[in-house]
Every structure is written in structure tokens, then in C-alpha cells.
Amino acid sequence: MTGFNVLELVRPAARLVPRIQKPVRKVPLQDKVMWTFAALVAFLVAGQVPLYGMMTSSTDDPIAMVRSMMASNRGTLMELGVTPIINAGLLIQFLTMMNLLEVERGNDDHIALHQALEKILGMVATFGMAFIYVFSGSYGSLSELGAGNFVLLVAQLTLAGILILTLDEMLSEYGLGSGISLFIAVGLAEAIVWGTLSPRTLPTPTGPQYEGAIPNAMYQLITMSDKISALREAFYRSRLVNLMNLLATAVVFLVVTYFQGWRVELPITYSRYRGANSTYPVKLFYTSVMPIVLQGTIVSQYRHITQVFYSKFGTNPIIRMFGEFMHVGGGYQIPVGGIAYYISRPNSVTEMIRDPIHTLVYALFTLVSASVLSAMWLQMGKNNPREVAKSFKQQGIVFIGSTDRDTLKRLNRYIPIAASCGGMCLGALTIFADFMGCIGSGTGMLLAVGTTYEFIEAIKKGAREEQMKIQVPGFSGSLF
Q1: In this structure, is the dihedral angle defined by the CA atoms of residues 113, 118, 119 and 121, taken in order, positive or negative?
Q2: How far apart are CA 369 and CA 346, in angstroms?
Q3: pLDDT above 70: percentage of residues in the chain
Q4: What is the DSSP string of 19-72?
Q5: Residues in contact with 378: Cβ distance below 8 Å, sequence separation at least 6, in sequence order
Q6: Helix, strand, or coil here: 274?
Q7: Would you call 261 exposed, middle or buried from its count of C-beta atoms within 10 A (0-12, 13-18, 19+)?
Q8: What is the rounded average pLDDT for all residues in the chain?
Q9: Chain-centroid distance, C-alpha 370
């Protein structure tokens, strides 16, 4: 590469950045499961440890409606969730698009510097977000906190963010895939179970009700004399999970699971091992659920920033153009105007009908952004056609009926189309899930189902590779 490269700026600090040692041998499936479980336990424990030094604050929660999607738990060490990791990835993408960053594949020095850069950007993003959260009054006014508690809260959030970065790196080396996906899926699963079965009572306009949809439905049917009204309240109550939300979640789960199975199986053979044939799957969701993660992160952070500015300068017409918000109780604020309103999903079917322009703009934004981000993520990741072709060559893999020279051409025929179409399908499924009213959000449901599916596939792949080692002596490659 000629010209400026950000990697050269990282070189002096790269040795100081803590990192997980790479495994010296292929990690067995049992060990991957063990390390994944250990990382999950560490994440869940941190999500229950409250931050020390918080004061009582009346500040609304600006990201209350997307916390489960960010694996975030308010008031705990996991306040920031996986957002710092995603922010670091977005910064890497920005630097690459501006031609300020280029990594030579196969260059160990560049790869090490790139990993150090990701860690540094993640730490910087963690500290920046921690400072903004505390400074904006999320844990009490600055006069209530004092300098000591201010520094202590920022330090706790920063160290917790570094823990998440470390766990994610550990899972990528020793576990079953991405820590981001795992932590988000667990957070969403917790939200679904809690919204379904929680015995906690909460105040509502119609009186105290159980938070869980099923306990509340049973209570309403037993205590109310008018069973029709009891069923109506159980199926359609507002602001809390109802039975219609549960049914919608089940339908969306089945639909997403069905589309997860769409793939093209390309037959391959290992030229170094006689009789070792397999297939390379090009899935419809080739770039996984990361485009939806990125899109959701961008929207949630945009809403957070505009909401903070609106609370301070709500009368300024320029600020109102970016977003207007309204309190709805329970720490929630919803966008009611400006750009933030049009890129946020409608809150109900009634709102969809009442404001079709909002519905149309939201749908177009989701479809286009998911498709574009999917194509961008493909070029940034390790599964783009060129990198897959290099991996094939290193392992002695060729397509059955083709030569080594035809590998890249054949991959280019399928992978870019799958990435763009898959991203648009993810956007369409997100819109469908949002309009159905599933628990959490459409984005969250896709993440939960997609991540669960990926982990099941990773376990199956590990089992097939171990079986291949038994059937083909000397086999040391990777299956797909």
C-alpha cells in the first residue's frame, strides 16, 4: 500500500495492548463448548453486579427499548453491553472506506497490528461512552455524584467494556463463534422468558398486573367475572408483554428458522485426501446477522444522541429536525418527529395506518441499509470470495468438476448475490417481525434465532470434522 496507513500509528502501542494467546493446535469441540460456557457465565454475572457510586436520578433511559438487542442491563457493569465492540467495528469500516487502513492478508505483522487497532478502538469507544453516560446524568447529577463517584463510575464501565472485548476475543479463538452474537442472544432469551413468565407485579392504568404474560392471563381469567374482558386484556394489554406478542414471537421464530435453511450446496473435494468430499454452503444469510446488528446499533445511538440534545435544546428548530421525543412513562421516550421518528419502527398497527409515510420511509430505510451494510460487511470480513478462494488453495480444496483457477470465478457467482439479497431479506424479516409485534423487536428476534442457529451449526461442524479425522487418517483441514 502506498500512502498513509493507520496501522503504522498503532505499532508503538501494539506491544502494550493485552491479547489472548492464539491456540497452538486446533481446539477440540469439547473445549470450545467449555470456553463458551465460561464466557457466558462471566457475562451473566457481570450483568447482575450493580455499579457502585450511583445516585438516585430521574433521568429517563434513552435506550430502554433496545437494551436487550445490545446485551445491556441498566445500572450494572453491563450497562454498555456489546456496543463498544460494534463501535470499534464501525470505526474500522470507516477507516477502510476512507483508504486510511489496509491489511495485507497473509502478512502476520499487519494482522497483529489490525487486531491491536481493534482492541485500542474498542477501549477508546468504551471510555468515551462511559464518560458520556456519567456526564449526561444517567446515574445522578454531577453535583450529587461528586468527582470521586464520577471517576469511579467511568472506571467501572471502562473495565467492564474491556472485559467484554477480552471475552469476545477469547470466544473467537477458543469458543464457538462470536461473543457479540452469543451475548445478544442470551440477553434476548432472558427478555423473552421474563416477559412470558415473570411473577413481578407492576402498576398499569388498569391496576397492578403481573409482568409475565402467562401469569397475568391466568390471574385475569380467575379473578375477573367478565371473561371476555379478561381475555381481551390478556391478549391486547399495552406496555407489557401480552399473549398476542407471544403468538407473534412464535410465528416469527418459525418463519426465520425456515429461511435460515435456504442455501446453495457447492460440492468440493480435498485433493490431498482421497475420497474426502464435502460441500461448501452459500447460505441466504451469508453475512450472518451482523448487518442487522450494525443497523440497530446505528439507529439506537442516533436516537440516544438526538434525545440528549432534544432534552437540552428542545426549542431549537435544527435540533427538532433531527428528532423530537415524548415521554410515555416508565423511563421510556418515543420519537414523535424528525429523522429519529422516520427511521424508528411504528409502535402499533394503528400508527402504521394513521401515518403511512412513516411506515413507508421506515421500511425503505431498513431494506436499503440492511442490504448495503451486508455488502460492506462481506468485503470487510474473512468470508469474502477472495479470502475463501485463498483458504481453499491452502487446504487443497477444489470444486468437483472444476480446476483451481475456476475457484474464485465460481465463488463470485454466488457469494456477493447471497450477501446483498440476504441483507435485504433480513431487513424484510425485521419489518415483518416488528409489524407482527414480537417480543423485543424484529431485529432482536432475528439476532436470537440467527445466533442460536449458528451455534448449532458450529457444533455440528466440529462433530463432522472430528468424524472426518477418524475416517480419513491424516486429515487436518476444515469443513464448512
Answers
A1: positive
A2: 17
A3: 88
A4: -PPPPSSPPPHHHHHHHHHHHHHHHHHHTTSBPTT--------TTGGGTGGGT-
A5: 286, 287, 384, 415, 416, 419
A6: coil
A7: exposed
A8: 80
A9: 13
Handedness of CA 142, 146, 148, 152 (dihedral sign): negative
Burial class (CB in 10 A: 0-12, 13-18, 19+), 38: middle
pLDDT digits (tens, 9 = 90+) for 94-116: 777 677 777 776 677 777 888 88
- Record the pTM: 0.71
Is there a common fold for 1-16+28-198 and 245-480?
yes
Whether residue 244 contacts residue 437, with contact meaning beta carbons closer than 8 Å, is answered with yes
Which DSSP symbol is given to 209? E
Domain boundaries, the chain: 1-16+28-198, 205-236, 245-480
Q: Determine the pLDDT at residue 132.
A: 83
How many angstroms separate the CA atoms of 300 and 68, rounded?
A: 12
Return the CATH fold of 245-480: Preprotein translocase SecY subunit (1.10.3370)
* Residue 58 scores a pLDDT above 50: no
Rounded CA separation 404/413 (Å): 15
Owner of C-alpha cell 408483554: 241
SS3 268: strand
Q: In the numeric block, which cell numbers belong to residue 56? A: 438516585
Arithmetic mean of pLDDT, 1-30: 77
Q: Which residue has the cell 445516585?
A: 55
Question: Among candidates 237, 267, 304, 254, which has minimal Cα distance to 392?
Answer: 267
